[in-house]
Design goal:
The protein is mainly β. It has one domain: Metal Binding Protein, Guanine Nucleotide Exchange Factor, Chain A (Beta Complex), CATH 2.170.150.70. It contains 2 helices and 11 strands. The protein has helices at about 30-35, 135-145, and strands at about 5, 15, 25, 40-45, 50-55, 55-60, 70-75, 80-85, 90-95, 110, 130. The strands form 3 sheets. Strands 9-4-3-10-11 form a 5-stranded mixed β-sheet. A hairpin with a 5-residue loop joins strand 6 and strand 7. The protein binds zinc ion (2 copies).
Length: about 150
């Protein structure tokens, strides 16, 4: 059994990884707010670090960077499983709520603070805040995390 397991609400799609996320990011943009129905916090893993079992359906859209995002969801319960953004090749963004130990997945960065819900606070865990998509800056953060892998 992997260190972190998770899956959709109905159990048809399952995830397993031996690692903690490379980074956990809060996205405050309106696209994510609609897609999640509330607050979008995602754990980033590289594709070889995590295994997914079960069939998903996909929904494609243009992300904050203006590049395509492929969103996988469970066709039975509709739960979002992972988003693959063209801007971050080889990486997947997994909503933290689908992991069993979601309380341990704490955001360290946030983007699109200019769209942030005005009442949303954090306890100081967020070290890097960006007004817009900040793709370049986030790639730098990821590279730093990769060196600590
Ligand atoms: Zn499901
Ligand atoms: Zn977003």
């Amino acid at each position: 059994m992997g260190k972190n397991i998770g899956g959709c609400h109905c159990g048809a799609v399952k995830l397993e990884t031996d690692l903690n996320p490379m980074i956990v990011n809060l996205c405050n943009c309106n696209r994510c707010r609609v897609l999640t129905g509330s607050i979008a916090i995602a754990a980033l893993y590289s594709d070889e670090e995590i295994t997914m079992a079960g069939e998903t359906k996909t929904y494609n859209y243009l992300g904050g960077s203006g590049m395509e995002v492929v969103n996988h969801f469970c066709p039975n319960c509709g739960c979002r499983i992972v988003s693959f953004a063209e801007a971050f090749p080889g990486m997947g963004a997994y909503p933290i709520g689908i992991f069993e130990k979601s309380t341990e997945f704490i955001p360290k960065s946030e983007i699109f603070t200019n769209y942030k819900l005005p009442w949303l606070q954090n306890d100081g865990c967020i070290e890097e805040s960006f007004e817009e998509a900040a793709v370049g800056e986030r790639l730098m953060l990821l590279l730093e995390e990769l060196e600590n892998r």
